[in-house]
Amino acid sequence: MGFISMADMEKAAAAAGIPLWKAVMEEDMKERSVSMQETMDKMRERYHAMKHADEDYEQNLKSFSGLSGGDGANMHRFVREGEAVSGGFMGMVVTRALKMGESNACMKRIVAAPTAGACGVVPAVFLTYEQFYRIPERTMIEGLFMAAGAGQVIARRASISGAQGGCQAEVGTASAMCAAALTSIRGGSNEQILSAGAFAMKSLLGLVCDPLGGLVEIPCIRRNVAGAVSAVACSDMAMAGILTRVPFDEVIDAMGEIGEMMPGGLKETSQAGLAVTETGKRVALDLAQRNQTPQC
């Protein structure tokens, strides 16, 4: 169910004289047979879960592999000390993306947006934007509908699975969702919203999924940072009046095609790329030995 394309979404919004995010919300109401209050409450619940996950970060917690943990706290300290060239806002986007990715690696509760492997992108940007610009929470929740609508179309036309389309389908999708949603929150036109999403996805086309040891840690967590930072830059470009030459739907279709052409070794199997570097092999061997060790 849902929209078959971003153009379809735009057409529905224009016919009803409503913004894109509201067209997504009304489609959800129709599909699930729920009231506006019920669908808003459900999205608010998701947003509060993102906030709780951010607040619940534990800087001393390490993942089972030992590959993740503490970097979010290091980045936060660096930003607080005024050392980040990227500044306070972008520094906190980076910080939150790291924290969320590390929390996921440490088996803490996160919100898949659209997947657990890409869970850091949307909350990193949304929570920081609300904090720095004092945006009403209701407006942020409306933005989540825009993000969800874009994600639904991408899932339908291409994929949001690293095992099917590589990391472009996970972090690439999250970045596109986030860029479109942020532009919606900022009051961008439909053309600007769709341009921002297209820019973000284009920027990450071809990104492979080659995690060390098959774990959603290295390089996945840092790629969440890249996706979040790119989303902000893409929103800025669109808001400045820079518009995409390739429609968002065509970019989505291109991502799906690239995913189909991508070798299986670069789609979550850890059989190529970073996973088979000397370091990657050592990590895989260490994990295999740990798993064979009897547990008390």
From TrEMBL:
Reactions catalysed, as given in the entry: L-serine = pyruvate + NH4(+)
Pathway(s) where this gene product acts: Carbohydrate biosynthesis; gluconeogenesis
Keywords: 4Fe-4S, Gluconeogenesis, Iron, Iron-sulfur, Lyase, Metal-binding
Domain Serine dehydratase-like alpha subunit intervals: 17-275
NCBIfam families with a match to the protein in the record: sda_alpha (TIGR00718)
Organism of origin: Anaerostipes hominis
Required co-factors: [4Fe-4S] cluster
Entry GO MF terms: L-serine ammonia-lyase activity
Enzyme Commission number(s) of this protein: 4.3.1.17
Any coiled-coil regions, as ranges: none
UniProt cross-references to InterPro entries, sorted A to Z: Fe-S_L-Ser, Ser_deHydtase-like_asu, Ser_deHydtase_asu
Stated family: Belongs to the iron-sulfur dependent L-serine dehydratase family.
A Pfam family hit: SDH_alpha
The name this protein goes by in its record: L-serine dehydratase
Tree of life domain: Bacteria
